[in-house]
From TrEMBL:
One of its GO terms (biological process) is DNA replication, synthesis of primer. SUPFAM superfamilies: DNA primase core (SSF56731). Pfam families: DNAG_N. PANTHER family: DNA PRIMASE. Residues 325-352 are annotated as: Disordered. One of its GO terms (cellular component) is cytoplasm. It comes from the Bacteria. This is DNA primase DNAG catalytic core N-terminal domain-containing protein. Signal peptide: none annotated. Residues 343-352 have a biased composition (Basic and acidic residues). Residues 71-193 form the DNA primase DNAG catalytic core N-terminal domain.
Length: 352
């Protein structure tokens, strides 16, 4: 909550105190000194991520993570001029700006402690906020927002609970990724983005398609929902897939095939090869897709007949293992008799 603007000789209080309004048990609103609340949370460190939390603590950490997701989602719609909205629009991901979107994409505002203040006002203590990886101690000892001015993607564990976040931030015209720290509920190596949002696709034999950029995952989901649910886009956001993440995908996917979109960048191709052993333990077939040079799934989709072109490219797979010994080579193949043009398969728009 915002602090009341004080007048006259009391103006110094603005530099010393931050006020929030909180309901007492009787329902009466009263003023609480936020600085005192901050001080109570300063003495404790984030618990050992390897320690098993109590049931009550686990519930609190999950609840505050879900509350942060709702806050970030609200901020994306509230700030019409934020760069993430433009990023999504220019990337062809307009569906994520629909209030009914399956993806709970959000925006962490460019502010010092708007999330922390919001969570405090809704009843969460500073220790819980900090232990969930949502706040960090500032230079002045106050708890402030960890993520600022970033597009936010919730990450889920094997139970599909929201346990952390990956942020997309921009700098000098490029985008970079940040992530929640390891906590008692979150490990980056044990959480995945995009499974819950496409769970019915994965349950209907869609093959997971691993990409780096969230925009590429959105594009693949889009073409999949218009073509019988063949694929589910899973963004890795700059990280290598871990063995735990491969197991989570394998447990949720009915299909025995996983597809990796291979970049023309040699270093990126080598990283793709590195995850082959873990994927091979979770899926019977590990395939790769080579897109035309200088194209990603998102940029290809935005071309003329882009949905059809992306659909056709995703059909042209070969074993990822081929990249261990062979140079990059485009495959061609005849369209199988059962494959019809995307336009003929298109049904009503998916209910978002």
């Amino acid at each position: 909550m915002g602090c009341p603007w004080l007048q006259g000789s009391n103006h110094r209080l603005l530099d010393q105190r931050s006020w929030v309004l909180k309901k007492s048990p009787s329902g009466e609103r009263r003023t609480v000194d936020h600085i005192e609340a901050w001080k109570k949370g300063l003495g404790s460190r984030i618990p050992d991520p390897n320690a098993v939390p109590t049931a009550a603590r686990l519930r609190q950490l999950l609840e505050v993570s879900h509350a942060a997701t709702r806050f970030y989602r609200r901020e994306l719609f509230r700030d019409k001029k934020s760069w993430p909205r433009n990023y999504l629009e220019r990337g062809g991901a307009l569906a994520q700006l629909d209030t009914e979107s399956r993806w709970l994409v959000g925006y962490a505002p460019d502010s010092r402690s708007r999330l922390v203040d919001h969570l405090r006002a809704t009843g969460f203590d500073l220790t819980t906020i900090r232990n969930a990886g949502l706040g960090v101690l500032g230079a002045d000892g106050r708890l402030v927002d960890r993520f600022r001015d970033q597009l936010m993607l919730p990450a889920r564990d094997h139970r599909l609970q929201i346990v952390g976040f990956t942020g997309v931030r921009r700098s000098s015209g490029a985008v970079y990724y940040t992530t929640s720290p390891d906590t008692q509920i979150h490990r980056r190596s044990g959480s995945v983005i995009g499974i819950a949002e496409q769970l019915e696709l994965l349950a209907g034999e869609a093959s997971p398609v691993l990409v780096d950029d969230p925009l590429d995952a959105f594009a693949i989901e889009n073409v999949s929902r218009l073509s019988g649910g063949r694929w589910a886009g899973i963004p890795l956001c700059g990280a290598l897939l871990s063995a735990d993440q491969a197991r989570i995908l394998g447990a949720r996917a009915v299909a025995d095939t996983v597809v990796v979109v291979v970049s023309e960048n040699e270093a990126a191709r080598q990283r793709a090869i590195e995850i082959l052993p873990d994927l091979a333990k979770a899926f019977r077939r590990v395939q790769a897709v080579d897109l035309p040079r200088a194209f990603s799934p998102a940029t290809l989709r935005m071309r003329h007949d882009g949905l059809q072109r992306l659909h056709d490219e995703l059909l042209l797979t070969r074993p990822l293992a081929d990249y261990r010994s062979r140079p990059r080579r485009r495959r061609t193949r005849e369209r199988p008799a059962g494959d019809v043009p995307l336009e003929m398969e298109r049904g009503p728009s998916p209910e978002l």
